[in-house]
Protein: DUF4220 domain-containing protein
Organism: Oryza sativa subsp. indica
Amino acid sequence: MSPGAFIAYFLIKWNQETYVFLRIRVIMGFLIFLYMVMFFLSGIFFFSTKRTILSLLDALSDAILVYVIGAMQAAPFKNQLFPVWALMLVSFRSSINCLSSYGTYFELRNALKLLAVAYLNITHGSKFWHAPFWLFWSLLALKCFYRILARHVASRSLWNGRSSELLQEYMGANGNESSFNPGSCNPDTMEGYKYFVYGESQQSKKNGHGLSVKDLRSQVTLDKIWQCDDSFLPSSINMKGKDLSLAFALYRLLRCRLEGATLHAATVHMNRKLVSKRILSDNAGKELFDILELDVEFLRDSLHTSYPMVFCRGLLSLSFTLLLSLVKVSMASWLYAKIGKVYYPKSELDKARGSLTYSFRYAMHSVISGTELGITAGAMYTILMLEMFEMSRYFISNWSKLIAICHFVNARNKWQKYVVMNILFRFPAKILGHREGIIVTGQTVLLQPFSSRMSVWKMIYFNFKRNQNKSTVHLKVKRNSSVGKSEKAAVIRALRSMDLEGHPLSRDLPSPRVSDRAESYWLACLEELPRCSHVILVWHIATSLCAINLANDRRINLTSKFQKAHDVANFLSEYCMYLLIAKPKLLPETILMSKKTCQDAVQCAQEMLKDCRSYCDIYDKLMKEEQKALVPGTHDDDVNLSGNILQQGALLANALIKKEDQACLWEILAEVWGHLIVHIAPSSNVEAHAKDLKSDTEFITLIWALFCHCGIEKSELWQDKKGAKSGNDTPGLVNQSGPASGMS
């Protein structure tokens, strides 16, 4: 029997009672497995195709769920546990969406499934667990409609759904200029930074529709939180709360840019002053990037998770959500206890009454043996696990801590404030081991040896899928590298040397730290390479060849300082290559241009390196080509690049290896890559970064957020020479030509 015929017989034609019951049990197990996969994918793992896989699993699991409920209803026999199992499956489906944003359509689909479960219970259910079943069913129905209501409330709240509308009224072009004076603001104490953080509620409406800042009450501003030095608040909690409030205030400004709200020009100058202060700080790598990570994390949560709905009314709505979960756990336990009284053997029931441990062990034995009680026990324990996970995630989230610090500022009972703050800030981290601030990046290497034993390259395979109007290149990448302190320090050094006064970033390499030749390599590439993707590829090839040369020369032993430069250059090189391959929308050029350049490079590599079996072969092949000869420039230290893209990379690598010692070479490469990734980050394509946050948070998105706050949307590196402009065309901002307080 073919597999297709077997599946058809299994799902349709085996109508005997034994086969029907077996089919339902097998499909239930498979469906629970799918739900667990979806749960872990939605809440823990991050990768580029995550949303696509989840969408496919969502459609598949919904179809299977509808099928299995129908199979239970149409079974030629009655089983009292069918309604319970169906209810458990619908509960699973509801729980695995706990970290995603609640959708009205999703909740209505669950409500329809609950109606089907209700009918199944009427026709098949048992009177022995009548009360707990209907209470559990009612709780799930209540949760569905509460989520729909919470979504509506969040969309209308002034601190979330209508945040940009409110800030445009409060911080717009016609706002009160006395509230936004860059000269009087202090980025150390946040004096003068009257940014809204939380708590805005509206007393009345202006002209029936618009907002009026005068009608607001209970608002908590950034300066108010930072200047609240309460003796009851431990210093660690105080600093964490201040960072959260600053990040949330910046997130609200970032959301204004996403939604096209026009803000007062002075806010950009104040943001530059704020950012510049942290760039110049001694601990800039931590201070700056910790704030940016929280900033982007709040943006991701507001767009793609359920946190805005859970906290739509602050701690009150959080408490109600946690209460629903606790009641759900209680109802599930009560229902299982009622079922156990019917299905436990009498001898085992007497033992279970005297020992909870024995009851649990017997339930686990039933799960393993696959009995009806075991299936029910497995479903119940899984529900308990999912609910506990959901409650813990909400409780330890940055949203709960942010709201707690805001309530702390406004509250009067100091002892009550102290207890709440310690529970929310200290208890979760110690008990649950919560980890934050880990940005995972992808890495891709272009130059890889070709093995005759493999049908594709070890790390890269080239495959065209031709349609009527497009062709694509697929390259394998790895996503297990986290951004370290050295990489952040390289970006900080690049930012410190740049002018952040609101104009496009200068194309020059300012004040090279290594030698004047660093600027000559930089400018030589910019003169010959017109596009972002081309620059990335040439410097990536050059960096890879320099790394191969270093690995071949065992006599060279880099000191720890220069080893860091080597690691930084390779990390940023492979990360920028990953962006070019996997995230071209985040680059400052069109997707078609990036793909075309990448296709040409891979084609060229496949043709030139087809006989290479090792890295040494690749190095020798590229470095000994006649076409790669250096072409003298105007000055002795200048180089011009010619030939195809691999030859250009080889020319650059050859110049670096011949003219620089290894320590200086890697310092130059680390400096160039630090500046290059900074020049790649500015972009006016806010939607691309917002959409990309569905799957993960990219390192380049943090730098992009920084430039957004500084009013910078482009770099002169990628402008046409004839059409380059000296101003800033940032939409959503007005009057930016005035003086700004930048870095000195």
Observations:
- Residues 442-478+515-695 form one domain.
- The chain has three domains: 3-156+314-396, 158-311+426-435+714-744, 442-478+515-695.
- The chain has a mean pLDDT of 77.
- The longest strand covers residues 478-482.
